[in-house]
Specification:
The chain is of the alpha+beta class. It folds into two domains: about 190 residues, no CATH class; about 90 residues, Alpha-Beta Plaits (2-Layer Sandwich). It contains nine helices and four strands. It has a four-stranded antiparallel sheet with strand order 2-3-1-4. Helix 1 crosses helix 8, helix 2 packs antiparallel against helix 6 and helix 8 packs antiparallel against helix 9. It is a multi-pass membrane protein. This is Cell division protein FtsX. Pfam families: FtsX, FtsX_ECD.
Length: about 300
C-alpha cells in the first residue's frame, strides 16, 4: 500500500473519531473499563502467586533434638539430615535462641524459663527443594536417632498447597474470561459506531471502493480507540499500584513476604495492556465491519 494512501486512511480515521465524538467516547470508555478490570485481576493474580510462592518457600521441617543428645550426637544427626533426599539447606538453632524467639512473640513472662529451666529443644530447620516435599522429608527425619519430634504443618501444609494451586487456577480462568468479555464488549461497541455509519459504507461501495480500502480506516480507528482506551487504565494502575505497594511494604516489613516490585512489573503490565487494547480494538473493528462488506 502506498504511503499516501495509508496517510489518507489515518486522516479519515481521525476525522471519523472526531465526527462521531460521542460514539468514540463510548467505545474508548468500554475499552478502558474492560482493560482496567483485566489489569486489576492480573495484578491481583500475579501478587497472589508471588505471596503464595513466599508462603511455600517459608514452609520448612523443624527437627527437635533429643535433650539427651550431646555435641557429637548432634553433629552425627546433622550429617544424617543432610543426606536426606530433597533437603536443600539446614540451619541450627539452640534452645536458648528458641526461647528468645518465644519471648519475642509472646512476651517477657517466658523469661521465667531461662537457664536450666528452659524446657525447649535445640532445633534443626530443614528447607526442601520443592515445598511439596516437606511431608516426605519430615517422615525420614522422624525415623532418625536423637530426634525428639518433627513439625512441618502436616495436613495444614498440604491444605495450603492445595489452596494455593486452586487460587492460581481460578485466577487464570477469571483473566481468560475477562479477556473474552473484553473482545465481546469492544466488538459490540465498535459495531454500534459502524452501524451508525452504514450509509457512508454503502456509498463507498456504490462508487466502487474495494473492501480493503473501506476496511483500513475502520481498522486504524479501532486500533486508536484501543490505544487510548488502554492508556487510561494503564496510567490509573501505575499510580494505584505504586501507592498500594508502598502501603503494603509497611505491613510486610520484617516478614519473608513482599509484593511484586513496581519496577519493572507495573510498566511491563502497562505495555501489555496497551498492546492488548490495540489488538482487541483492531480485531473488534474487523469483526464488526465484515457484515457490512458482504454482498
Amino acid at each position: 500500500m502506498k504511503l499516501r494512501t495509508m496517510g489518507r486512511h489515518f486522516r479519515d480515521s481521525f476525522k471519523s473519531l472526531v465526527r462521531n465524538g460521542w460514539m468514540s467516547v463510548a467505545a474508548i470508555s468500554a475499552v478502558a473499563m474492560t482493560l482496567i478490570l483485566v489489569g486489576s485481576f492480573v495484578v491481583i493474580l500475579l501478587n497472589v502467586n508471588k505471596l503464595a510462592s513466599d508462603v511455600e518457600n517459608d514452609v520448612s521441617v523443624r527437627v527437635f533434638i533429643d535433650l539427651a543428645a550431646d555435641k557429637e550426637n548432634k553433629k552425627s544427626l546433622k550429617e544424617e539430615l543432610e543426606k536426606i533426599e530433597n533437603v536443600e539447606s539446614l540451619t541450627f538453632s539452640t534452645r536458648d535462641e528458641e526461647l528468645d524467639k518465644l519471648i519475642g512473640s509472646y512476651g517477657s513472662e517466658f523469661n521465667l524459663f531461662g537457664g536450666d529451666d528452659n524446657p525447649l529443644h535445640d532445633v534443626y530447620t530443614l528447607n526442601t527443594e520443592v515445598p511439596e516435599q516437606t511431608g516426605a522429608v519430615a517422615k525420614e527425619a522422624e525415623a532418625l536417632e536423637y530426634v525428639a519430634k518433627v513439625e512441618y504443618g502436616g495436613t495444614t501444609a498440604e491444605k495450603l498447597f492445595e489452596t494455593i494451586a486452586t487460587l492460581r487456577t481460578i485466577g487464570t480462568v477469571i483473566i481468560t474470561g475477562l479477556l473474552l468479555i473484553a473482545i465481546f464488549l469492544i466488538s459490540n461497541t465498535i459495531r454500534i459506531t459502524i452501524f451508525s455509519r452504514s450509509t457512508e459504507i454503502e456509498i463507498m461501495r456504490l462508487v466502487g471502493a474495494k473492501n480493503s480500502y473501506i476496511r483500513w480506516p475502520f481498522l486504524i480507528e479501532g486500533a486508536i480507540i484501543g490505544l487510548i482506551g488502554a492508556l487510561i487504565p494503564t496510567a490509573i494502575l501505575i499510580f494505584m499500584y505504586r501507592f498500594l505497594f508502598d502501603l503494603g511494604a509497611q505491613y510486610l516489613v520484617g516478614s519473608n513476604f513482599a509484593l511484586l516490585s513496581p519496577t519493572p512489573f507495573i510498566y511491563y503490565l502497562g505495555l501489555g495492556l496497551v498492546g492488548v487494547g490495540v489488538i482487541l480494538g483492531s480485531i473488534g473493528s474487523v469483526l464488526s465491519i465484515t457484515r457490512f462488506l458482504k454482498v
